[in-house]
């Protein structure tokens, strides 16, 4: 079907005002927060599950690809359409459909903004735990697609740990109800499987989430270190002391100075690194843990440990962390954010490796990340107007991720594979692993109508992941 | 081919794969095999797939179904006990599926770490078995389900492909979350050969507070108060009068008990005591505390003087609907006259029901519950050929998944479809 006919059909389904096809409108949907771009042929804004089902039936019968999109804050290219594709944008499906405080559940449409969901239930003393840094903008639907995390996933887990039910539309147009409000449902855990499937097996139109009760006390400490190494070693020392903070974030000195210039969060400008450590729970427990954390930090050579005196000071410290990516915009036109994960004891080694990569490629790389669960976010600064720089940056990023995998880690902790890391999947997975995943994708989406070209590699590298590395830094670490 | 018709040639091939002593004829004509490695598991499944034989994977056989007993090949995973990785400073472990929960708990416990899964009969229950049936115990309230802390899984599909999902780090979204798909699938999609888990720091000190009530309603009101308080206990368990008698036959009390287990310093435990208030009738610590929780964990497996085998079902409902379940059970008990005992993680709406005396569960419990709760009840029948007596809503999607991983329906230890 010609794309004009497709647009016409889409307008019949969703309404004349609910479809965009002018080039100047489509430009807004050609990118996400990653580095790739591709312009869709149309953007449609469905208003209910039935319309999504009709759109999927149309797509399956005519063969045009469909890419679901929340706020476009994703960092892996997951919400970018391939050539000739239609973006299914959920901005108009943005209602919280139900709040069930007694059972601590809410049912939200995919376009509900993450933070707004927590604000919506705040008067009940409840909140939704996953808190990506983009939570002011990112949507619950996007969180489900990518199985998003955030600083507080250290204690509470990622999105999948907080989703108990989904309504989804399959490529066939069939509507399925997976799970529900109960902690467990009959049959295979398809809810768990759909979360994090990056929009490749179905389009989610309703999400049942678990809500948590606000803790009695929250306190935030700032551990200040002379060197990155000292800060990094403290991360596993805190865990070894039997303490699981709600969040344990790290900023290196270079990054925190950029953040401080932009946000005035109160970070020390002369530090080598800081740890942002949040503790939550019963008042007595939090006070004991705060003392214990202070002791561990000082034992591990912290120069100073500060504690936020009040909620304002605490909010300011977090403002710095959550706006850090944006703050780096003051230093370069763009950045390439990586999302590798390593066992937390390997953080010092991998940070040294990242430094060696920065020197090798002549790039500036900042580190601001979820240290508690070893989820690194090296931010490689560059100018996207120079194609050569983009190639260089991507090569550096791939080298860092190879290092993460060599250290027993992963290529992505919360951003997803998407377009950006699909060809790195063979670093982690064998051909058989990928074949099994592909057979599952094909069980729902055999024709590749939904989000084609994502998650699965375009080539099969079939590389060993456990052999000794030729990289000198990794060799020094015994990798 | 039927369970009694495993050809001589196939038996010979199985012996060639696993060794003579690890592949033996069963009385029903099938073959028992005990492979030593994931490679051998894959070879067994490839052979079964080619020959259209049925395979029933088994761990510690703490819950054996009739369907499993009738498969052509009983695939015992007890020899898969290798420690793949144990990074105690990272709080992660990867271990063979045949390892028992008790072995794993002891290994990590030596480093003051906790494997937070406490299923019945941990001395026999294996890691693979716990994953296959999404098993759990009282710790589920405070630490989540095994789906929440299983971070990686290696498996062999029904058609013999060796594959994995996840990895060995605590945060990882690369590829599909195959752990979720396999956990609770009762070994009908793939045979899990090893898995990686997130561990937790072990508590240095715990205490259990018991509060007794004349009625379930009062007990559940107390549960609500606990859940609305700032407390976050490790365990929050309901024990019915019948369950209490099964666990401690000398007990004659007809009280419904809420058991709250807390961890922390003296100051933290004192705060628990203060918040829980005058409802607390007893406090347990040390051996008496661990003995009590062991009895709760082992409740489904506990032996009693009863001659009949009990029916055991797990019910999961919305937390506020626990009262409806209790009322329905009380009515069924009054009508049918058997002893019915209930325990459960009532904070998350999970109940374990043990019933003696030939009660028609479908008529007496499932149907009224489905009606009273408008279908919002999940039932798992322990040891039944089909673990879900109320059919799952998404059988078509489940079939599609089954077809993708086990196209020839080799894995027939349960009759789900």
| Structural class category of chain B | alpha+beta
Q: Which architecture of the largest domain in chain B would the CATH scheme give at its second level?
A: 3-Layer(aba) Sandwich
Placed side by side, the strands forming the largest sheet of chain A appear as: 15-12-14-13-17-18-16
- Per DSSP, the total helix count of chain B is 15
CATH architecture of the largest domain in chain A: 2-Layer Sandwich
How many strand elements of chain A?
18
Shape of chain B: globular
Per DSSP E runs of 2 or more residues, the count of β-strands of chain B stands at 19
Strand neighbour order, sheet with most strands of chain B: 15-12-14-13-17-18-16-19
Task: Look at the structure and name the CATH superfamily of the largest domain in chain B.
Answer: FAD-linked oxidase, cap domain/gating helix
Helix percent band of chain B: 25-40%
Span between termini of chain A = 53 Å
What is the mean pLDDT of chain B? 92
| Gyration radius of chain A, in Å | 22 Å
CATH topology of the largest domain in chain B: Vanillyl-alcohol Oxidase, Chain A, domain 3
Contiguous uncertain segments of 5+ residues of chain B = none
CATH topology of the largest domain in chain A: Alpha-Beta Plaits
Biggest interface pair, counts? A-B, 87 and 81 residues
